[in-house]
Design the sequence.
């Protein structure tokens, strides 16, 4: 399912929704991340900024979301530039969300770069007022090396209280004979239910079938606009963090 599938879903949603041509509800978020990656005895440091814009044509109904991010990966006195963009089309209602994604990213260091295209499908089920279950899967294409592969993932988030959530996820990816599996967990806290700002921290462990392992510790600060309520409400009405991309 490639980018054309996303465009097809958008077209179907616009035609089928009786509210499609009305002014959509607009929301979004701005976020900042800092992280430390430890791999085979070496440390790498990341500084990232990102943003999302969500157009909700109806609820229940069709949604269109665009994401963008940029930052640097620092190690050994050098910095690599990181850039990524993505588009998601999905249906969301009080029971959950289901949709498709397409994205493109690059990492540039000196005169060399690695470009990766990804695509996939995703869903999340609001199983209970305090529990969300998630699943995704798709493919990837490392354009500069002609490598292709796929990925699958699943996760869950439990809201201890409406402003405090803990989540866990696992993912498996394979391309050109290389295999990667990862497990991660995070905790997110909203300072005040009337202020749509949250702070989270998480850890992810990734194992390469070739023998190398990577541990990543991240701190994530985000501010949302166009939506209100406690953390669980922001997650279920604002921009989606769980999408079909790796």
Sequence:
């Amino acid at each position: 399912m490639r980018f054309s599938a996303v465009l097809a879903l958008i077209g179907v949603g616009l035609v089928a929704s009786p509210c499609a041509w009305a002014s959509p509800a607009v929301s979004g978020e701005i976020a900042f991340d800092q992280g430390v990656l430890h791999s085979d005895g070496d440390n790498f440091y990341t500084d990232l900024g990102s943003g999302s814009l969500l157009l909700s044509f109806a609820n229940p109904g069709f949604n269109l979301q665009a994401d963008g991010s940029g930052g640097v990966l620092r190690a050994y006195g050098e910095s690599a530039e990181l850039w990524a963009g993505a588009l998601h089309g999905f249906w969301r209602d009080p029971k959950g969300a289901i949709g498709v994604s397409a994205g493109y990213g690059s990492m540039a260091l000196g005169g060399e770069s690695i470009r990766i295209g990804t695509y996939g499908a995703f869903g999340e089920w609001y199983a209970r007022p305090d529990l969300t279950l998630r699943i995704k899967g798709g493919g990837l294409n490392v354009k500069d090396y002609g490598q292709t592969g796929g990925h699958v993932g699943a996760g869950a988030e439990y809201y201890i209280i409406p402003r405090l959530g803990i989540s866990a996820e696992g993912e498996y990816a394979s391309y050109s004979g290389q295999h990667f599996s990862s497990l991660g967990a995070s905790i997110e806290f909203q300072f005040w239910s009337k202020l749509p700002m949250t702070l989270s921290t998480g850890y992810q462990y990734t194992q390469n079938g070739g023998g190398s392992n990577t541990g990543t510790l991240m701190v994530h600060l985000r501010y949302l606009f166009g939506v209100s309520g406690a953390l669980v409400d922001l997650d279920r009405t604002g921009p989606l963090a769980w999408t079909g991309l790796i």
